[in-house]
């Protein structure tokens, strides 16, 4: 596990990116902080981005809401998922976290749209505070920085919608 926030990107993006955040309402004190920190960081590093926020009841609902958003005609350039699961005395939290993780990874690979996964599984409220509200490990800001990095990468590779890079590779004919 990383112990510090990755550095902020060196340059501010001027792109008109569509960024969607899907966030859980459960453990709202912490998830609200994740959303606020992610939005504030996005506004700093990509001030022209259009940010849409969709709130769902809990972490388990994040993948289906994400899939619905990525199935729309007007797809976001990147999707950020934010949630918090506090481990209890049963394995329920671990099962939800594993299901969410697998679903989000599959969704990203199928749609070829970056999905930033910050649905956190923590042991207690102290860990939740450090990752959601604190400044050193703040996963909301980290999610925004990851989203920016993926937007830049996909732009460089010509993978954004409406920005199809013409292939310079030629294929031999079998005729």
Automatic annotation (TrEMBL):
Q: Which UniProt keywords apply?
A: Riboflavin biosynthesis, Transferase
State any single GO MF term. Answer: 6,7-dimethyl-8-ribityllumazine synthase activity
Which residues hold (2S)-2-hydroxy-3-oxobutyl phosphate?
89-90, 131
Query: Would you tell me the protein name for this molecule?
Result: 6,7-dimethyl-8-ribityllumazine synthase
The record, for InterPro entries, names:
LS, LS/RS, LS/RS_sf
> Origin organism of this chain?
Rubritalea spongiae
CDD domains according to UniProt: Lumazine_synthase-I
Report residues binding 5-amino-6-(D-ribitylamino)uracil. 26, 59-61, 84-86, 117
Catalytic residue list: 92
Q: Name one Pfam family in it.
A: DMRL_synthase
What is the catalytic activity of this protein?
(2S)-2-hydroxy-3-oxobutyl phosphate + 5-amino-6-(D-ribitylamino)uracil = 6,7-dimethyl-8-(1-D-ribityl)lumazine + phosphate + 2 H2O + H(+)
Query: Into which family does the record put it?
Result: Belongs to the DMRL synthase family.
Domain of life (superkingdom): Bacteria
Q: What NCBIfam families is this protein classified in?
A: lumazine-synth (TIGR00114)
Tell me the route in metabolism or biology where this protein functions: Cofactor biosynthesis; riboflavin biosynthesis; riboflavin from 2-hydroxy-3-oxobutyl phosphate and 5-amino-6-(D-ribitylamino)uracil: step 1/2
The gene for this chain is ribH
Per the UniProt record, which EC number(s) apply here? 2.5.1.78
**Role this protein plays:** Catalyzes the formation of 6,7-dimethyl-8-ribityllumazine by condensation of 5-amino-6-(D-ribitylamino)uracil with 3,4-dihydroxy-2-butanone 4-phosphate. This is the penultimate step in the biosynthesis of riboflavin.
């Amino acid at each position: 596990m990383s112990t510090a926030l990755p550095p902020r990107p060196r340059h501010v993006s001027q792109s008109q990116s569509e960024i969607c955040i899907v966030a859980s309402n459960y453990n709202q004190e912490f998830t609200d902080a994740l959303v606020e920190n992610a939005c504030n960081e996005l506004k700093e590093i990509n001030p022209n981005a259009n940010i849409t926020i969709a709130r769902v009841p809990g972490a388990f609902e994040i993948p289906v809401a994400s899939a619905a958003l990525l199935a729309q005609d007007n797809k976001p350039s990147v999707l950020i998922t934010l949630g918090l699961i506090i481990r209890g005395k049963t394995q329920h939290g671990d099962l939800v976290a594993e299901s969410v993780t697998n679903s989000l990874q599959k969704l990203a690979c199928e749609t070829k749209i970056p999905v930033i996964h910050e649905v956190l599984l923590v042991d207690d409220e102290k860990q939740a505070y450090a990752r959601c509200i604190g400044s050193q490990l703040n996963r909301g800001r980290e999610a925004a920085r990851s989203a920016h990095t993926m937007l830049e990468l996909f732009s460089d590779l010509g993978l954004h919608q409406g920005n199809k890079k013409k292939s310079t590779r030629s294929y031999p004919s079998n005729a």
